Amino acid sequence: MSPAFPVFACPYAKKLAAKSRRFALQVYDAKTTGNAAAAKYSADPFGELSGAGKIPGLKQRFPDRVLVMTTERCFMTCRHCTRQGIFGKAPIVDTTEKLAACVEYVKAHPKVRDVLLSGGDILTLPDKKVMEFVDAFTALPQIDLVRVCTRALCVNPSRITSALAKKLARSGKVWVNTQFNCADEVTDEARAAAARLVDAGIPVSCQTVLLKGVNDSGSGMLKLLKSLSAARIRPYYVFMCDPVAGIERFRVDIEKARKIEQYCAERIGGLSLPRFVIDKPGAKRKIPI
Predict the structure, then answer these.
(1) pLDDT mean for each 10 residues of the chain (289 residues)
(2) Where exactly are the structural domains of the chain?
(3) Of 59, 101, 146, 164, which has fewest CB within 10 angstroms of its CB?
(4) Does domain 11-288 have CATH number 3.20.20.70?
């Protein structure tokens, strides 16, 4: 375990890890494959501490969207986290003045239509603070959608209250992006959390990460996709592991990934079939595998 990225899990996540080996790998497994493997990768492959950071706490890699770092806190420190190498170093938007600066940046860039509220996990913040971020961007006429990026549905589903769902739905612009990586995670509690959002009129999409030992089989991935769509969570992306140092043990080779995608595509309809992609530093889009 890296002292810079300590293991942490909220009570619900610990309880789920005790029941599911696949989920526990995401919480506790901190084995590495040695410096030779790690040397191929970077702690900050997307340049979030340099090129992508336009103003403190705001990052832009693509012309139509920006990402706002709302907090560093999460409900658990996922062992495959893309930002583990910059944990404690990345600027966050933690004052009214910084949020105002982000809004002004967006207004100065009229091509931006999509704002991702990320971190960390924005839902570790109280409702009032969450809505300060949401309202600041949904109020802009140029913004078509604001994405609340959270694993709360999976790792702390009680955080998704009916009251919060109603607040998020007010503008008609909010989408929730979440992450489930194996069918064990789609519990009764998670399904109920998703229902509270969807019933309020908020679309919910899932960005899964392809992880060795967690979901790297056709049957396992198919079970997850069926579980998600049954819960009214749209499978959106399946990402190959990002080229970040420290997660070598989770990497799945590209040929195996293609076989998993084909296995699923031959057994499930398009509404439940996500895009299997690579997020490559410097690329102008997510690259299909």
Answers:
(1) 77 98 89 53 71 82 96 95 79 96 98 97 98 98 98 98 98 98 98 98 98 97 98 97 87 97 98 95 90
(2) 11-288
(3) 101
(4) yes
